[in-house]
Protein: Metal ABC transporter permease
Amino acid sequence: MSELLALLRDYTLQNVMAGAALLGLISGVLGSFAVLRRQSLLGDTMSHAALPGVCLGFLIAGGRHLGSILAGALITGSLAALLMLLLTRMSRLKTDAALGIALSTFFALGVVLLTHIQGMNNAAQGGLDAFLFGQAAATLRSDVWIMAGVTALALALVAALWKEFKLVTFDAEFAASLGMPVVWLEVLLTVMIALAVVVGLQMVGVVLMAAMVIAPAVAARQWSRRLEGMVGLAAAIGVVGGVAGALLSALSRGLATGPLIILSVSGMVLVSIGLAPGRGLVWEALRLWRGRRRLREQQVLTTLYRLAAHHADPVFRSEQGLLDTYHGLGTRTALRKLERRGLVAWGEAPPGEPGPPRRWLLTPAGRLEAERVLAAIDGEGD
Structure:
């Protein structure tokens, strides 16, 4: 415990944890809108398109000045997103094709600029390629304040335009019919997602930033059916995942912070997909198992009913082996469950009739239930 407290007092770790928390906060909030607008690849495009901006910011500032680098990344990331919007609106290209064009074009330009900088023999270029995968340990207190300012600006815009963003996200055509500037609102949302990407360049880098934008929102979507709850939960998941990744990196002594942040958030996504009530894979598997069991019980019940109807005897007694043969597997479990529900019962075989002495028959409640099930099946057939 004392070692952990001593570790938390470390200046570098404090900066990294603060930066990771800010990154998770802005990614969770803005990523929710990207996921709901079915633009999950937008974060990937913007993060790769930020690379030429990083290089241009370095060239203009003459060194690794974070403000200039982030400004350049914001400009090129926003340009890539606007290019995607332009291509989808002015041509027949689908969104995924436009995103692919913007991503490959801007990232190729970034690689060319990065190669050019590496050939300049400028001592200040050292570590510039760390923006590809992030270098959280290099985060300074001044960097954290810049990230905090960007995050505060984005959250303020979301709060001020909450109703407009909500309507544009779920029904852009209705928003346009109300006279809202839908195009400008979409552009603003896109630029704000670029802000989230810019905040994460120092922490997780160009390559991994796409996952940070999308993962918290995907996890939150499994737990919440309302936008308000989803955005708040996504922000919380992003913060927890970011801080957890930073702590794991500090405790492991050697493992990179950015990938651990992504793995932490991704772990929450897996847990959410598996366990979220009503949507998780575990609950879905349980629901399917219950459905199969209920279907088997209904099949056995209606078989008893049809046999009774065929013999014109409402209390016709059916042998266990006959039911097993008819359904091709053991029916004892289904019959026991029907018996506990009071739908079937054991009955004595008629005197002198060969076969087992005890057999299954429908109770009055069972006949009513079988008639209801058959009526429902006939109704679906119609």
Notes: The beta strands are 344-348, 358-362. The mean pLDDT is 84. The longest helix spans residues 281-310. The domain at 283-381 is CATH 1.10.10.10 (Arc Repressor Mutant, subunit A).
